[in-house]
Design a protein that fits this description.
71 residues, mainly alpha, 2 helices, elongated
Length: 71
C-alpha cells in the first residue's frame, strides 16, 4: 500500500508547526524508503530537503483548508 496518514490534533500554533515538521519528516522518509533511496550524506541531501519542504507545505495547506471549511 502506498500512502501515509498524518494526524494533527489540538494544541497551539507552535505545537502545530513542530508537529508538521515532525510528520513531514516521516512522509519524506516513507517516500524515500518506498523508492529505495537514501539521504544519509549531509552534502548530497538537497533533493531530500526539497521533498521535505513539499511535504510540510502540503500538510500546512491541508490544515489551512480544513480550518477554513470547518470554522
Amino acid at each position: 500500500k502506498i500512502g501515509q496518514d498524518v494526524h494533527i490534533t489540538g494544541g497551539n500554533l507552535e505545537d502545530a508547526i513542530n508537529t508538521i515538521a515532525h510528520e513531514a519528516t516521516h512522509v519524506t522518509d516513507y517516500m524515500y524508503d518506498s523508492l529505495g533511496l537514501s539521504a544519509e550524506c549531509f552534502h548530497r541531501n538537497e533533493n531530500y530537503a526539497y521533498l521535505l519542504g513539499w511535504a510540510a507545505g502540503s500538510i500546512s495547506s491541508s490544515l489551512i483548508k480544513f480550518k477554513e471549511e470547518n470554522d
